[in-house]
From TrEMBL:
<dbReference type="Pfam" id="PF00072">
    <property type="entry name" value="Response_reg"/>
</dbReference>
<protein>
    <submittedName>
        <fullName>Transcriptional regulatory protein LiaR</fullName>
    </submittedName>
</protein>
<keyword id="KW-0804">Transcription</keyword>
<feature type="domain" description="HTH luxR-type">
    <location>
        <begin position="145"/>
        <end position="210"/>
    </location>
</feature>
<feature type="domain" description="Response regulatory">
    <location>
        <begin position="3"/>
        <end position="121"/>
    </location>
</feature>
<dbReference type="GO" id="GO:0003677">
    <property type="term" value="F:DNA binding"/>
</dbReference>
<dbReference type="InterPro" id="IPR001789">
    <property type="entry name" value="Sig_transdc_resp-reg_receiver"/>
</dbReference>
<dbReference type="GO" id="GO:0000160">
    <property type="term" value="P:phosphorelay signal transduction system"/>
</dbReference>
<feature type="modified residue" description="4-aspartylphosphate">
    <location>
        <position position="54"/>
    </location>
</feature>
<dbReference type="Pfam" id="PF00196">
    <property type="entry name" value="GerE"/>
</dbReference>
<dbReference type="InterPro" id="IPR000792">
    <property type="entry name" value="Tscrpt_reg_LuxR_C"/>
</dbReference>
<dbReference type="InterPro" id="IPR058245">
    <property type="entry name" value="NreC/VraR/RcsB-like_REC"/>
</dbReference>
<keyword id="KW-0805">Transcription regulation</keyword>
<dbReference type="GO" id="GO:0006355">
    <property type="term" value="P:regulation of DNA-templated transcription"/>
</dbReference>
<dbReference type="InterPro" id="IPR039420">
    <property type="entry name" value="WalR-like"/>
</dbReference>
<keyword id="KW-0238">DNA-binding</keyword>
<keyword id="KW-0597">Phosphoprotein</keyword>
Length: 215
């Protein structure tokens, strides 16, 4: 079971998310929090696998609570997925740079919410499709391109290109005729070489070096 903590200052939102997730056979909601301070406290107490964190909350907002949960000295470091109504690129960028492994909008729907939890638990990242490409284009700094084969092997370049297209590990394995375990090994090596914390940062790098450009 994937253990989840829901942090949102609106009780009706917490209840709705909890109903969606508890309907899944592999997800268990172990705690709720109404602000960032409670989120940090409940995470320490219940040690969830995944935290669904609202951005704007009283006492301690979601971004500060995220930083507290992902700090290097933390005793327990859950995966954090930001869930918000605010389709704001600055929030997304800050959250990902602060250690979030996903960012979805509250109106994304039940299926995407559950997928985001599963992706986070597996070490993957999921961002609402409505903001993914725009975010990556914003992260792409001009003048930073360099040949990807100076950093990665040809097979790793293939994996990165597919990550940037939004494919899951299983889809990448199928496309490249390799096992999911091999994909995970490649991703681990890629993260080490690029100093990337998650697949979103890998995708952002792909945009910077031109691997994700479409004609």
């Amino acid at each position: 079971m994937i253990r989840v903590l829901i942090a949102d200052d609106q009780a009706i939102v917490r209840t709705g998310i909890a109903m969606i997730l508890t309907a899944e056979n592999d997800i268990e909601v172990v705690a709720e929090a109404e602000d960032g301070v409670q989120a940090v406290e409940q995470a320490a107490r219940h040690r969830p696998d995944v935290v669904l964190m609202d951005v704007r909350m009283p006492r301690l907002d979601g971004l500060d609570a995220l930083r507290a949960l992902t700090r290097p000295t933390a005793d327990h470091t859950p995966k954090v997925v930001m869930v918000t109504t605010f389709d704001d690129e600055e929030y997304v960028t800050t959250a990902l740079q602060s250690g979030a492994c996903g960012f979805i909008l509250k109106d994304s729907g039940p299926r995407l919410l559950a997928e985001a939890v599963r992706a986070a638990a597996e070490g993957d990242s999921l961002i609402s499709p409505s903001i993914t490409v725009r975010l990556l284009r914003r992260l792409m700094a001009p003048g930073t391109r360099r040949s990807p084969d100076t950093v990665l092997s040809l097979r790793e370049v293939d994996v990165v290109r597919l990550v940037a297209q939004g494919l899951t590990n299983a889809e990448i394995a199928q496309a490249l005729y390799i096992t999911v375990g091999t994909v995970k090994t490649h991703l681990g090596n890629i993260q080490s070489k690029l100093a990337a914390r998650n697949r979103v940062e890998i995708a952002a790098w792909a945009w910077r070096v031109g691997l994700a450009h479409q004609d």
